[in-house]
Amino acid sequence: LALAERTKAVLPLCVGIATTASAFALLAPSLSKEIADKFHIQVVTEIYLICPLIAVLAAAIAGLATQESRLYASRATGLGNRRFASSKDVGRTWMSATEQVESSAKQLSDKWIWFAVGVLPAPLIAALCPGALSFKA
């Protein structure tokens, strides 16, 4: 359970980063307009995309940390169940080495699929949404 707790400890950091980046994403268009008006320079509008990108990545990392924490907690629970179970119960739930490798590979694959599912919708929705870049960010 200690591994699950350590993995879960990154969640508040990810929430803080995602929230701060979202707030800056709302401020970026007006801030860049003020800078452009005050100093008479052209500000690159693609800079609007940095804050939403950071927010989405922080949220996706938080999702990965949640999955890892859940995995470690279920491993600890399974270990406790096997430790205090009778030999008859353990024999029915025991996985062979091949089954363990397949299960581990599937979990790793699922983890990256969910990471992609967490990251990809934001740019796709922004690409489909009409409006200026500052509105999409």
Describe this structure in words.
This protein is 82% helix and 0% strand. Helix 2 packs antiparallel against helix 3 and helix 3 packs antiparallel against helix 5. The mean pLDDT is 81.
Beta-strand portion reads: under 5%
**Mind describing the biggest β-sheet?**
none
Please give the alpha-carbon distance between the first and last residues: 39 Å
Decide which structural class fits the backbone: mainly alpha
Indicate the percent of residues in helices: over 70%
User: In sequence order, what are the helices and strands, one letter per element?
Assistant: HHHHHHH
Strand count? 0
Please give the count of helices.
7
Offer a few descriptive terms:
mainly alpha; 137 residues
Please provide a brief summary of the model.
With 137 residues, this protein is mainly α. 82% of the residues lie in helices and 0% in strands. Helix 1 packs antiparallel against helix 3, helix 2 packs antiparallel against helix 3 and helix 3 runs antiparallel to helix 5 (97-119).
